[in-house]
Amino acid sequence: MSLDKSVKSQSPWQIGFERLKKNRLAMIGFTLLCIVVTISVFAPLLTSYDRDAIDTLNSYQKPSAEHWLGTDELGRDTFTRLLYGGRISLSVGLVSTSIAVLIGVILGTTGGYHGGHIDNIIMRIVDIFMCFPFFLIAIVVAAILGPSIWNVMIISGILGWTGIARIVRAEVLSLKEREFIEAARALGLNSRDIIIKHIIPNIMAPIIVYATLGIARGILSEAGLSFLGLGVKPPTPSWGNMLAAAQSMRSLRLHWWLWIPPGCLVFFMILSINFLGDGLRDALDPKLKQ
Question: Is the pTM of this model over 0.85?
Answer without folding.
Answer: no
